[in-house]
């Protein structure tokens, strides 16, 4: 159903990555794709009855333009919804005009952060005994220096919130596709190095990431020069340490449109300052990944250096890794793996993947811990030694590390790396070799002397891959892309035989801001979907197609999914089973079971009933 | 992370309130002086890039509040300092007497690995006041104390006139640098696949 041509992923009987002998299941994603059809069609059976019911239970909600229903195990969620979304607005906004209601998205989950210390909006009384220090203003003019009062209240965070044009322009220019074409347009490395916290442009950036040591020494900043931000870094440390001193922890500070999210990992502090309206839970997970990336490069043994010497400066150890971090941060806005905790596979014919899997299996049996063949962000084949299994987050971080480090492309390499979810304390060694521009082989071993043996293996693997045409097939698959919603057959089901009739038929254009919406996309107004198999740790998403064309629209959908994911996995209220959410841009549907999660976006004008088919 | 190796030095300035800590820092970083007194609340942070023996350094200067009520912030602020600057007012005996307390308190709270040799610098500030006529702490007395505490470098400064400020901070940078020189090779373990039964953390928090 997903593909009607005879191409790669049409296989209904495939079992592609099952070469992995480990007890952890790694059957084929292809197989599970077929399940999507059934699930897409059967959603209707599950959800039709509750949804109209619940929607009617909601207020018509003109002030927030939010229509949301959650069919959850706990109905309290729904009961509390209206008042809650209201209180959210109160909490986050100082002046009512400030919330961007344009999109009609009000995220309920945000207002419920547990253990949040300060979610006060009233100009942040985070201060250490009222440090709205006026004294610091005297320095502000100094050139080449930065000053900020430790009273982040008045002078610190407040001033960051200006208009956010700066980043917005940039965002449009960037490709925000979920697909693999992204990094062609992504410029690696840090930009805007000449900025610091006194720069207007720096303050206008929508999303900052900082890593610093517990003594306040800067380690990494997404924008600007770390050393010039030393004063800002010190301020962050002062806030974190002050709260720590009181035996407490600061997790989140809200200041107007901005959220400041903190993550303390022993002697390493990570901070995100964002006005992107992402849920703070998402930002927090992004900080976890950023920390994981650092561990991947250095291992957690770095903590020992700080124990021995609190003033330890770890920046030299991270020399040259700017691009690794910035590319990871970039992936937070396009790669679903960053919030789904799952990886995606390159669509390939069964025989092709079999061929790749078989040779990798041979390597794994010869003492290699993991053998991974990838094409950009997508897995072609993955094999682990007995009992070893690779966490999807580790795979994300490893692939990011390899792809963002230019030097791997030019020669075969043997590099120490650490898999934070496998063993955060110790190094492994990875042999990396690019077979062509996109496809690369990674062989992980615990043996630091294995280079020559692995090189020999690589030569054998390369021969097999060439002989069985795997590399060409992979390239072709990259070009062809994944599934397209347009290819999904309109599927008349007993419930709705008549409904599909309007599909694909032109509708009058909406008077929405986008101005480009007609009923496009797949059956029932389906625009896009992501399917995640929990059992396989894998996900598959459809390619973007009309009308989700521009990077801006794609990024918006990405963020909407991200929000959906967060609200579905709310720790206090969740996990939920299904969620239905409609706003100006789309109707979003999420369905979570023990085995899979399905996220789908539909035309906002599609009938409630018909997109359930 | 900078491509060229640079060093960041964390410098803490301590001393009684009103001795001129903020003014010294302001004079050093911004070449400005204001007669108006504004109490520092908590701490202020400034950075200054300097060149020293052909190397680039960034001084991260922590200008702390002198009032006692802020001393509970100590642990949070002092951790990982590369150098500590003790400031007193040559016209106020009490501020000189308190240097010992400041030093002790710092060593307790920052607990540096080698307290005996932790780099301090002492500054006797406000030498310009009244043409030096209201001075109560003699240079000799101050130097004697510094010698006693392990030959702490001593400077007499005037933040107002900008006297000796540059020199003092050069010395601060030099001393901070000295203490940070010891380098170790970073050598984490390698996974021993044979003995340990590695398992992936199943704790996917979703």
List key phrases describing it:
heterodimer; A: 613 residues; alpha+beta; seven-stranded mixed sheet; five-stranded antiparallel sheet; 18 helices; 18 strands; globular; B: 206 residues; alpha/beta; six-stranded mixed sheet; 6 helices
Notes on the protein architecture:
Chain A contains 18 helices and 18 strands. Chain A has helices at 29-47, 50-57, 76-92, 152-160, 165-173, 182-185, 200-204, 230-245, 280-298, 302-308, 322-331, 337-340, 350-365, 392-404, 407-410, 451-467, 470-480, 551-568, and strands spanning 67-71, 147-149, 207-213, 218-221, 252-255, 258-265, 268-274, 343-344, 370-375, 378-384, 413-417, 426-434, 439-445, 526-533, 538-541, 578-582, 587-592, 596-602. Chain B is of the alpha/beta class and 206 residues long. Helices cover 28% and strands 22% of the residues of chain B. A 6-stranded mixed beta sheet of chain B has the order 2-3-1-4-5-6, sandwiched between helices. At the A-B interface, strand 2, strand 4, helix 8, helix 10 and strand 12 of A face strand 1, helix 1, strand 2, strand 3 and helix 2 of B.
